[in-house]
Amino acid sequence: MARLVLRGVKKRFKTTDVLHGIDLEIGDREFVVFVGPSGCGKSTLLRLIAGLDPITEGEFFLNEQRMNDVAPSKRGIAMVFQSYALYPHMDVYENMAFGARLMGLDKTEVEARIAEASRMLRLDELLKRKPRELSGGQRQRVAIGRALVRKPEVFLLDEPLSNLDAALRSDVRLEIARLHRSIGGTMIYVTHDQVEAMTLADRIVVMNLGRIEQVGSPRELYETPANTFVATFIGSPK
Ligand code: ADP
Ligand code: MG
User: Fold this and answer.
1) With contact defined as beta carbons under 8 Å apart, do 150 and 103 qualify?
2) Residues 120 and 86: beta-carbon distance below 8 Å
3) Which of 129, 145, 179, 181 is the most exposed place for a label (fewest CB within 10 A)?
4) Taking the C-alpha atoms of 198, 204, 208 and 214 in order, what is their torsion angle to the nearest 10 degrees?
5) How much distance in Å is there from the Cα of 219 to the middle of ligand 1?
6) Three-class SS state of 41
């Protein structure tokens, strides 16, 4: 059974068509990476999956349930953004607790989940700090931790490394790969960085101009690109 199914998903903003009909199935525990040039519709697609924007046409199913009209908080999906969007006046613990409390979890359960998430992401020593007292990499780990305490079935990550310098980027990238190995779940990850895509993905979805050009394993895309666009995009150095 596919965890997520997208059928003919289109998105239009006023008169601009941004997604032209996306068809895709994503399995349980799969790590799927969307790549493509800036403006091709990657973030838009993630926002539709998260429920932050309505789908114009087409359907989206999660665990065989139609999700088009389901509120974001009821989807079991958590999204991590490119900019950390932490609450500046709250410490790390409170940042992680906030969303969990909104879900209606009691204090003990919130504490247990934060303990688990901070162990996993090595945030134990940082729980009392404010976001301004953290490095970029630490902040992004908190943002991931905040999503993790909600125990989502599906994780959406939109260019989570793009504000980090090169050294931190590989740290946090490894952290994300480790997280996926330990919690399972479905990861949907957006990047414009081919190296990230090639190292993290079970399957890569190559997008261009609101369409899917090709879907395949890193190796398939590398060895048998469907067209010149894919060959150029996957094959070219950053
Ligand atoms: P990517 O994440 O691949 O860089 P986006 O999904 O952010 O691309 O954007 C795809 C296209 O949709 C762009 O042309 C962008 O200008 C347009 N777009 C995104 N959000 C809106 C919006 N709220 N209103 C109008 N156009 C939008
Ligand atoms: Mg984007």
Assistant:
1) yes
2) no
3) 181
4) 120
5) 29
6) coil
Q: Which residue has the tokens 């990850």?
A: 189
- DSSP H helices in 153-193: 166-183
DSSP bridge pairs for 34: 190, 205
In this prediction, does ipTM exceed 0.90? yes
Distance between Cα 2 and ligand 2 center (Å): 25
Residues with CB under 6 A from ligand 1: 13, 16, 18, 36, 38-44
pTM of the shown model: 0.91
Copy the structure tokens of residue 12: 């239009």
In order along its 238 residues, the chain shows pLDDT tens digits of: 799 999 999 999 999 999 999 999 999 999 999 999 999 999 999 999 999 999 999 999 999 999 999 999 889 999 988 777 899 999 999 999 998 888 889 999 999 999 998 988 889 999 999 999 999 889 988 999 998 898 889 999 999 888 788 877 888 888 889 889 888 889 999 998 888 999 999 999 999 999 999 999 999 999 999 999 999 988 765 4
Rounded Cα distance between 98 and 100, Å, is 5
If you count them, how many residues does the chain have?
238
Identify which ligand lies nearest to the alpha carbon of 12: 1
Cβ contact 4:60 at 8 Å:
yes
Distance between Cα 57 and ligand 1 center (Å): 17
Between the CA of 180 and the centroid of ligand 1 the distance, in Å, is 28
Residue 226 tokens read as: 């469907």
Q: Which atom of ligand 1 is nearest to the CA of 44?
A: 6
